[in-house]
Amino acid sequence: MRGIDTPRDGQVGTVGRRHDRCVTARIRQRWACAAVIFAVGYLGFRLYWAAGGRYGYSACDRRHESADAASGCGADGLASLPFRSGWGPAVLAALLVGLALALLAVTVTGDGEPTPASAAGTRGRRVVPAAAWLACGALLVAAFPMHLLFQIPAGLAGHPTDWRDVGHRLLLVAGAVLFGAAARAVAPKPRCDQPRAAAPEARPVPVRLRRWTYLAGAVPLFGWTLPHGLWFLGVPFGIPAAMLDGIRVELVTAAPVTAAAIVFAPTAGGLLTLGLAQRWGQVFPARLPGLGGRRVPRPLALVPAGVVAVSLVAYGLLSAAALVGGLLGGTTGWADLRSGWAVTATVPVFLAWGVALGMAAYGYHRLTEMSVQAQPGRRTASP
User: Fold this and answer.
1) Number of structural domains, the chain?
2) Most buried residue, 147, 185, 245, 318, by most Cβ within 10 Å?
3) Which pLDDT score is estimated for 360?
């Protein structure tokens, strides 16, 4: 129509790309700034503890329960800390600060789309996110988050709990999430170049993804909930009578919410895992008000699945190391393993669950990545 200035298609595409790049750059910088804030704050805590401060510090051994857990097992009375607990972690925290600043520098020096003329910048955009992913994994391993799923409900129910250690590990989990999100945000690939498709469609789920997903859902049911349910009912499934009495005392005397969480929480998580291989894991069901028909944000499924998978594998490996150490040190005998084989079997259960969940999350990542790339609205417009 005359009298109305209508931009050409190429102009619309150029303006849209510039706007989306600006939005993406702001998101990258926010995640990187959050990682910097965490790293600097954690370094401050570590320097404070290494220099003699004891507020929030715990001297308890996570492998053993202590009646003095609420006070940090006498941490306030420690005059100094060994290097592995004091200045050593402070040095590692300083390295985290440097890595977080490198992430921030990557977000400031470009828009995330490397060009042939900036080979050095391209290498930096690949090395820095890779290092951030390593830091994310290291923080998760140090946080030992799977134990938190049982320790927090038990503490809320009145069981003696080292809340200083719990708070520290929750802080590490938050740092792992921030470094993982920042690493994903600064990864060198174009994002948000065009508007999303109006009506997303779920892609067919490959058979391999379905198998890994069903395995990740079945392992906690048969490897955890079933034996713990039998023990709660008084059935000595795979354990001696003395061990059964101790487990029953913990389950029966615990608060109902705590007992239910111990027995059924892993299976509930396994049922949620099934969404990775279902349509409702890609597109919200139409009956959900306000969300029906919209595409499920990929981080909503990938971040929890990835965190839990890494935590399960780390827990399984640490438990296996403790088991081997007990055998080599003579504190655990082969007869004990045979008489309590159901408890011993939880070690490969955690490993199998973590591997299956990790493979399912990777398959979901590949599937949904193809879904996003296949959207018609994602095609780059001609300038």
Assistant:
1) 2
2) 185
3) 93
